[in-house]
Structures are given as structure tokens and as C-alpha cells.
Amino acid sequence: MNHFKAVPFDFVLEELSDLFPQTKPMFGAYSVYVDNKIVLILRHRPSYPDDNGVWIATSMEHHASLQLEFPIMRSIKLLGKGPTGWQVLPLESDEFEESVYRVCQLIRRRDPRIGKIPKPRRKAESKIKVQKSSQKVIKKTLQKKSTRLSSPKTQSVKKKSRK
């Protein structure tokens, strides 16, 4: 039995296939990476259906120019009130597919308004901390073992000297 859910809007991946997009599960959706940038999130879930669709990774400075090209684009309600860096092409719109194809064209042209380089993950830092703490545990364990190994000798010497 396959436990993996299908990536929604797979036509997006077909449209970007010559860029070798990578997908990763993210927030119950799928992020799409091209090169080292996250460019889109593909979301189709029963919770918060207003935000189902294709999320565009952009920044507020590009909202106005993108809004001219994509009148259906809006901020993601799930992320709070007011404008957000991420924008959505909502699935409920009659112009959804047409808009998604156009955003894919912009991505293929490497439009600088779309895509964000993700911040480095903190897991690398925590892995280093875990490795260091593991090294400390190993050292302590080795010290205890060496103490135990030397203890019987010391104890037997002490016993002999008492006799």
C-alpha cells in the first residue's frame, strides 16, 4: 500500500521539468525548488480551503508588479492578516490554471521576483551540539571504564598492604 500522497497540481512539475524541479513535503503541502531557490508551494488540503492553490515565493517589494500580471493573486490568509511575502494563486479562481502556467513561464525565465533562497536550517547546528555532547559521553564512559579496570588492581594492592 502506498502511503505517499500525490503531489497536487502535477502539471506544474511537468511545466518546469526542464529545470529539474525538486519537491519536498512542507506544512502539509509540497514545496517546489528550482536550483537553490524555493519557488512555489503546491497546496490542496481540506483545512483552510481558501488558501488551496499555488503559493508563490516572493517578497512584498514585488507584489505590485506581480499583481498586474496576476490579478487573482493575494496574500495567504492562513499566514495572518495583512500582506505576506508568500502570495497565492487560489484554486477557487476561474483563472487558476492559466495563471499557474504563466507563473511557470516566469520561473523558467528566471524572473528575479519569484523565488527565495531558504535560510540555512538550524539542524546543522543542533547536529554539531549532539556530536559534541556524544563525544563528551563517550569520553566519560571511557574514563569510567578505565577507572573500573584500574580499580581491582588498586583494591587488591590495598588488601595486600593491609595484611
Distance between the termini: 74 Å
What proportion of the residues is helical, as a percent range? 25-40%
Q: How big a fraction of the residues is strand?
A: 15-25%
What's the alpha carbon Rg, rounded to whole Å? 28 Å
Q: Decide which structural class fits the backbone.
A: alpha+beta
**Total strand count, please?**
6
Secondary-structure element order, as H and E?
Answer: HEEEEHEEHH
Largest sheet: 6 strands, antiparallel
Descriptive notes:
- This protein is α+β, with helices and mostly antiparallel strands and 163 residues long.
- It folds into 2 domains: 11-108, no CATH class; 128-163.
- It is 40% helix and 18% strand.
- The chain is built from 4 helices and 6 strands.
- The chain has a 6-stranded antiparallel beta sheet with strand order 1-2-3-4-6-5, covered by helices on one side.
- Strand 2 and strand 3 (37-43) form a beta hairpin.
Main attributes?
6-stranded antiparallel β-sheet, elongated, 163 residues, single chain, 40% helix, alpha+beta, 18% strand
Short description:
Helices cover 40% and strands 18% of the residues.
Question: In terms of topology, how is this protein built?
Answer:
Blueprint: H1 11-15, E1 22-26, E2 29-34, E3 37-43, E4 53-57, H2 63-69, E5 74-75, E6 86-90, H3 96-108, H4 123-162
Antiparallel strand pairs: 1-2, 2-3, 3-4, 4-6, 5-6
